[in-house]
Design goal:
Blueprint (H helix, E strand, L loop, with lengths): L1 H19 L5 H5 L4 E13 L4 E13 L2 E11 L2 E12 L2 E12 L4 E10 L4 E4 L3 E5 L2 E5 L1 E5 L4 E5 L2 E3 L6
Antiparallel strand pairs: 1-2, 2-3, 3-4, 4-5, 5-6, 6-7, 6-8, 7-10, 8-9, 9-12, 10-11
Length: about 170
């Protein structure tokens, strides 16, 4: 009789414990892997059916949720000799640059700033922080700047410049 009673109590305990304990795999549900791509020391080359549109090199990058994030980026097109920054972020057709941004224009000026963005479709560089631009002895400082790399047109705000011209 004592053994039957003990077995009944054990069975009741096992059933009640199983009803109160919810077994779930919450660890896997909370951890969602969203990183699409991760790479180091990589060059991206953008081409169409006619020619190479440009290339970008990065020491480290990650594509996550549609945003390509790049470290130590070097970017190049037909009109831009080099566009360098510590951090870059491609969102759709715009490259956002932060940290020691330096652009060398082909046969032209060098622009230095901390923040800029480059629209690949319109090919316009927007400098959104104070900048310094040089070409030979010519020096230009300003608050912001918009540079059309195709038409070679520059629009700036609060420009302070020293320009040397040839004597006539």
């Amino acid at each position: 009789m004592g053994l039957k009673f003990l077995l009944i109590i054990l069975i009741v305990l096992i059933i009640s414990t199983s009803l109160f304990v919810k077994l779930s795999n919450t660890l896997n549900k909370n951890k969602v892997f969203t990183k699409d791509l991760e790479f180091t020391d990589t060059t991206f080359i953008e081409v169409d059916t006619q020619k190479m549109q440009g290339w970008a090199f990065s020491t480290y990058g990650m594509h996550n949720k549609g945003i390509l994030t790049l470290d130590n980026i070097v970017f190049h097109t037909d009109n831009i000799d080099s566009l360098v920054a510590k951090k870059g972020k491609f969102i759709k057709d715009v490259l956002y640059l932060d940290g020691d941004v330096l652009m060398h224009e082909k046969d032209g000026y060098t622009y230095k700033t901390q923040h800029a963005n480059y629209n690949q479709k319109t090919e316009i560089l927007n400098i959104t922080a104070p900048f310094t631009s040089t070409r030979g002895q010519n020096i230009m400082h300003g608050k912001t700047l918009s540079y059309d790399t195709v038409n070679k047109k520059v629009f700036g705000v609060e420009i302070n410049a020293i320009l040397y011209t040839t004597k006539k």
